[in-house]
Write a structure and sequence with these properties.
By secondary structure, the protein is α/β, with parallel strands linked by helices. The protein has seven helices and 19 strands. A six-stranded antiparallel beta sheet has the order 11-10-13-8-9-12, with helices on one face. Strands 16-15-14-17-18-19 form a six-stranded mixed beta sheet, with helices on both faces. Strands 2-1-7-3-5 form a five-stranded mixed beta sheet. The longest helix has 14 residues.
């Protein structure tokens, strides 16, 4: 009997993946996986188990009353988990915390395979996972414990889900806690990771995609691009990659490879330093693809430092641009990522 993988995204940022058997109701599958989703009647009457289906195919069932789930709510992706039967992999937004559902974050171990330096700007950390390959949504992050410190740092996956070799693009910070550890890390060193976490991830859709990356905020887009490339997407995709200095432009060769192999993908790099000889100087807002914004409401994904996020939001407001969807994530070098859908 076939089964489907269901991502349950809780409001505290925790994501848990469960299997749902063919013909099985989602609420039953969650309970079987020892996750207590909200419920009361389990008969499609009270509406307590209402969640939002972000992606995937499913049958809503017919054994529920309109007071529990109205036609308008159903058309907006709301579902009753006590009645919903998935017919594909799905992503479900659960409007309560993971703790309230008697579940929580998952921790797994990985060993250092390689640390690749990119100028003085960043490193790519390659890890081999012990055990099953981690499952996550492209764009999500994990907290990585810094050995010997009792502290952790949050980093987005730059690799695709389902691989036992995972990678992270990490900004080099002089005197930084993780940067200091990475400078002396050796192959075979063990790290503990907690996750996946975050509501910044690639959604299903057919609209053009506009990706806006600031510095090492490029990481989640590399994961997304690999997933899109493997799926053979025909969506138009444009990425603007903004950095402070020329030396901060890293992994451009990776983007060039996607440009050559992924249909309808293009990218532009932008350097803020006025002394740079780069052909595009300034800020990402100066190089927005106006034809793309004018022709058809793209889905916009933005990952970068808070000033960049605020500048893009102001740009959209001033230009009267309303993206089809707008997902953004602010980050600072030493703080967990914050995502807003």
């Amino acid at each position: 009997m076939s089964s489907h993988t269901i991502a349950l995204n809780f409001e505290d940022g925790v994501t848990r993946f469960i299997d749902c058997k063919a013909g099985e109701k989602l609420l039953d599958a969650a309970f079987r996986n020892k996750i207590n989703l909200p419920m009361d009647c389990s008969d499609g009457v009270c509406g307590t188990c209402k969640c939002r289906a972000e992606s995937g195919a499913y049958d809503l069932g017919s054994d529920y009353i309109e007071d529990a789930l109205s036609p308008d709510e159903a058309s907006q992706g709301l579902v009753l988990t006590c009645q919903m039967v998935p017919s594909s992999d799905c992503v479900i937004s659960v409007p309560v915390s993971s703790v309230a559902c008697k579940t929580g974050q998952q921790t797994f171990a990985a060993t250092v395979a390689q640390v690749t330096l990119h100028n003085d700007a960043a490193v790519v950390l390659h890890l081999d996972v012990e055990g099953a390959a981690p499952v996550f949504l492209p764009g999500q992050y994990v907290n990585i414990d810094v050995p010997g410190s009792g502290l952790s740092r949050a980093y987005s996956f730059s690799s695709a889900p389902g691989e036992r070799r995972i990678t992270f693009l990490i900004k080099t910070i002089p005197g930084g806690l993780m940067s200091g550890w990475l400078a002396r890390a050796r192959p075979g060193d063990t790290l503990n990771l907690t996750g996946p976490l975050g509501s910044f991830y690639l959604r299903d859709g057919h609209a053009p995609l506009l990706f806006l990356a600031g510095g090492t905020g490029l990481a989640p887009f590399l994961s997304m691009l690999e997933v899109l490339a493997r799926a053979g997407t025909q969506q138009k995709i444009h990425l603007i990659y903004g950095v402070t200095r020329d030396l901060d432009l890293v992994l451009v060769d990776t983007l060039e490879a996607y440009s050559a192999g992924l249909a309808n993908f293009s990218f532009a790099t932008v350097v803020a330093d006025e002394a740079s000889s780069h052909p595009r100087k300034g800020w990402v807002t100066q190089y927005m693809p106006e034809d793309m914004l004018r022709e058809g409401s793209p889905d916009v994904y933005l990952c970068g430092p808070p000033p960049m996020v605020d500048a893009v939001r102001r740009y959209f407001d001033e230009k009267g641009v309303t993206p089809n969807c707008f997902h953004y994530e602010k980050f600072t070098p030493n703080a967990p990522l914050k995502a807003i859908a």
